[in-house]
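One chain shown below:
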Amino acid sequence: MHGTTTASPPVPTPLLDVARRLAIALQLGLLIVLIYQFDLVNASFQNLCILTFFGFLVHASLPRQMRLHCFLALSLAGIVLVLGVESLWLLALGLVLIGICHLPLPYWGRLALLAAAGAALAVLRAGDADLPWSSALWPILASMFMFRVIIYLYDLQSEKTHPGPIWTLSYFFMLPNVCFPLFPVVDFKRFRHNYYNEDAGQIYQRGIDWMFRGCYHLLLYRLIYHYGVIAPGEVSSTVDLLRYMVSAFLLYLRISGMFHLIVGMLLLFGFNLPETHHRYYFASSFTDFWRRINIYWKDFMMKIFYYPVYFRLKRFGPDVALVISTLVVFFLTWALHAYQWFWLRGTALLEAHDALFWGILGVLVVINSLWEAKRGRARTLRRERPSNRQLAARAAQTIATFTVICILWSLWSADSLLQWLLLWQAAGPSSALIVAVVPSAYLASWLLLRAPARATAAPPPARNEPPAFWNTAAAHAVAIGVVALIGLPAIHGRLSVSVADALETIRGDSLNARDTAMMRRGYYEQLVSINEQNDALWEVYNRKPKDWALDAPVEKEFEFGRYGPNAQVVEKGALLRTNRWGMRDKDYTKEKPPGVFRVAFLGSSHVMGAGVTNEEVYEQIVEERINEELGGEDAIRYESLNFSGGGRSAIRHLDTLETMVVEFQPDVVIHVTHRQDELMLLNELSRTVRAGREVPFEFVSTILRDEGIEESTPDAVIQRRLQRHVRPIIRWAEARMVEVCLSNGITPLWVFQPMIGERLDEETDLAELITDAEAAGFTVISLAHAYDGHDVQELQLASWDDHPNALGHRLVAEALYQALRERADLIGLPTAVATSH
């Protein structure tokens, strides 16, 4: 075993060993089906699972002395599979760092050289210099070396035996690491010494158990993410604030789910590692929470920092040593998280609320640790069953701990300390009830524990025998198979509509409504969700082209035409052409020719056609179809003019209508809207004010003045103060659009276009929007069901971009065309003519 001295466990008979391997392979195959069915993690991990399946069959069949070599070969193959030719740079840089650890120099000399190498790499990471490898390499290189090299060098210094190159390379380049920028900090000593240290079948089965646990953690995460999360701007009551805080903490399921998948996969190759998390939502104290959540990180900090500091300071007394060493650990945890952020994101993370989170949690753990040190832990030779009073006290402590952690986690996940404070202000005085839960629960616990209780002796603990292999394997195979089957559209489509919609929503790693609009996350979410927050890694995992998001000039607020006249650019993989007026459209004359019926479209990037060619935009498809199917030699010719642009809100549409659209003499104006209009308006007003520009509407300017909003007002304050004004501003803008249209002899038409993946009911989800549009004077058309019957993956440009692709535009074009045929009078045709075709 290359340096380990652990005795090998008894080997089962060859026939039984083969049968058990096949049982594990069956469960692993079902797990892979489940992972594919729900599109868990990312495409690269799914491909790596296939490699793992066949690799496991080979690895488990080899003699023990060859298995580690096989694991290393599979790990290197996985790196090549994911990174391609760039894997050579990853291996080369990694070998340089490993080589420094083995130079014939004193410990401090090697440490200094590693620091110098790290500093040089940091300069490259932060700079814009052209490198022979892409920026996608940095997160993976960092996840392999930024903490692991510290442990490795420490263990080299303390261990008596040399690990050997196979162990070293297997440790740094371990199989699943290439797919995860966040990776548990695996201890090198434990990695070696726990290798096949018990029955192989039990290790493998535990690996399946943890991988399955990781899968359902990720599925729970998606349910919470899509149905439990509330945006900060939507918090207006204590119930909303409670939902915001609890959901922020529950989103950590994504990390624990991925860590269980990672460690479970390692167990399939004999590395009998312990749990990474243990029921952390049920922690009954702050020290208990620290011991249960991200256990590998806690062990790393204790080994490298806590114990060395503690034993150096112990001569000043155990309490002094405990306090200082614990505070050092939490200070370094904050610093190392900022260090991790830099390597994974390439930017600094120095935020007040981040420091407050770790500082407050550290103080709470210190107080809790001192309490435990003084009070001591109850230890008896005979296990006792706790009384009902003791159980109730433990439940109260758990409630108090969970509440405090939720409050702290919401602080950590907020965009800023100011935004977090504004949430409490928005919730009102009743939000004090949330804080009051903590002392109330602790008081109840104290009263329960103070009362005399009679403990009941429990029977002697049973021997720690592993569960029967075949019973466990059968139970897991059935459970995994059932979940995988439920993920099939043919199966969940037979369930109730609400359940089927929920399952369809979590089948795929799509963004929820809040993040689709705001693209903002808390700390862990920004590192893991690699759509906007980790573009480099996203490019590799999803083959996103580097020039996908064009670095186009930023529009001046309320000026039309981002790209200018007669431009040709490639954006999101499609050629985008503008005419002499800066519109993404054909080169129409400003004067309307005789015999022409004109329709002007006002909308956002979904109407402009981001990611498709000019000819594929649904506005042009509808124009061509009307002319082809409803026209003729003597018929009216139709022209549709696209005045849409990315990120534009209702007040931008109004400004474009007043300053530009009316000059083209349209007969109909189609104002296309969706459910993100309110967020887009908030963002647009905030950008305008922060840039020191004027909003060209007195109605809106008055609101800004009355709310005390000016250029120096923080963005979080602007959005909070304007939240209650957004809907009235949209109502005013839509009423003004109708007034402008009617005064110029134009028919105003309001069209609702759904976002990809939305399942909507006009009587519930769209009732307020439709009512407001009709009250303003619009003729209303809803395309809410245009995408029905199609999966998200069929319709969006890519997994990182939810704009509709060519198929999506064709479906919207079909829905809009049919709606216009039913209202032929809107487009200048007698109803009889339209329905006759």
User: Anything to note?
Assistant: The radius of gyration is 31 Å. Residues 1-7, 517-523, 525-543, 831-837 have pLDDT under 50 and may be disordered. The CA atoms of residues 52 and 74 lie 8 Å apart. The domain at 592-835 is CATH 3.40.50.1110 (Rossmann fold).
